[in-house]
Design brief:
The chain is of the alpha+beta class. The chain is built from 1 helix and 3 strands. Strands 2-1-3 form a 3-stranded antiparallel β-sheet.
């Protein structure tokens, strides 16, 4: 399912669910889209911001001390 924000020729905005983008195209071509506010059949997609979920923050890699023991054996241990 996909949610589109639609807009009629009178600049009324509304949302409608479709099975996929092809479902939207078929309904538009058939004249089956109607503005719920004014009944206008000249309906198209409105500009939408994508609804993208926030991803996890990338893990910060530990500093490379260059010692085989890692930071524990470094003179800068605990300071960076």
């Amino acid at each position: 399912m996909i949610l589109y924000t639609l807009r009629c020729s009178h600049d009324h905005h509304f949302e409608e669910w479709f099975d996929n983008s092809g479902d939207y195209d078929a309904k538009k071509d058939a004249g089956a889209l109607t503005c719920p506010e004014c009944g206008d059949k000249e309906v198209g997609k409105a500009i939408m911001a994508p609804n993208v979920g926030k991803g996890r923050a990338a893990a910060v890699p530990p500093p490379s001390c260059g010692t085989p023991m890692g930071c524990g054996g470094c003179p800068m241990a605990g300071q960076h």
